[in-house]
UniProtKB/TrEMBL annotation:
Name of the coding gene: arsB
Molecular function GO labels: antimonite transmembrane transporter activity; antiporter activity; arsenite transmembrane transporter activity
Membrane topology reported for the UniProt record: Multi-pass membrane protein
Alphabetized InterPro entries for the sequence: Arsenical-R_Acr3, BilAc:Na_symport/Acr3, Na+/solute_symporter_sf
TM stretches of this protein: 7-26, 32-54, 75-102, 114-133, 145-168, 174-196, 217-235, 247-271, 283-302, 308-330
Cellular component GO terms, alphabetical: plasma membrane
NCBIfam families the UniProt entry points to: acr3
Protein name: ACR3 family arsenite efflux transporter
Protein family: Belongs to the arsenical resistance-3 (ACR3) (TC 2.A.59) family.
Keywords: Cell membrane, Membrane, Transmembrane, Transmembrane helix, Transport
Amino acid sequence: MGVFERYLSLWVGLAIITGVLLGQWQPDVFQMIANFEIAHVNIAVAVFIWVMIFPMMAQIDFSSIKDVGKNPKGLVLTLVINWLIKPFTMAALGWLFFNFIFADLVDPQSAQEYIAGMILLGVAPCTAMVFVWSQLTKGDANYTLIQVSVNDVIMIFAFAPISALLLGVSDIQVPWQTLLISVVLYVLLPLTAGVLTRKALNQGKDEQALNQFLAKLKPWSMVGLIATVVLLFGFQANTILAEPQTIVLIAIPLIIQTYGIFVIAYAAAIWMKLPQKIAAPSCLIGTSNFFELAVAVAISLFGLHSGAALATVVGVLVEVPVMLSLVAIINRTQHWFK
């Protein structure tokens, strides 16, 4: 894990402060950027998110899917957690906290937007950072790659329907056209570009050229993330300064969701008698989120200044320290899997 990844929460925190200060200092500049949209997609944010996502997609080798039958139990655990449990527990927690527990602290419109942001986080399983978590827990790198590849294929088809279902249940109206455009723009196209890039660079089985290219791309992913956070918090500057407690209110159910899903997945892995090197990434994929996609879709659906966009960015701030604590738990309980 590089210095940047290890202290990602710090950099995100600094980006938040920078964004808020710039948003207060140059509000007209941020308003001009916010107005630069095509079909409800902000061009500046879309560019930064592509910079963020493409390096992650280029790392995925879909040829590994052919090995999925070698140890199916770990994959089954990941898929059940990601697609049958996690989206619904996230929606339930959002509904519980913002419609009841925090009902007196936020207005109804904002509450619905925060719930929407949480739902979008819950429906997007981790794609990139899970490779870091797997490495830190001595997980099976090849099996992690298989799990990520299968999840990404499912995400192309399942993200939009599940998101629309849960947002509809929460009485949030979602235009299907915008949601489908978001999935194509931020999942299908980057995946296709990543596959074509791997194929072009890997001709003649020259893995060195591919690895060198991926190494050069990796820093840009973080640049895209930080730039996106600066923009989002610049757009949200007035709201944040007027209601700083909002960040804390959003973080509480997100933290509960992360630890709760981990307990379910970890207990299931022990019951299924999975090897530790398979159990660790299986649990961590289901616990963490593809927050880049969630941020992009929240912006497309609800706008740059929305509570949904704010909730997904808070997910970035919360995820890294929480995931590092889960890595520590896994490493201290390896003897449970002998």
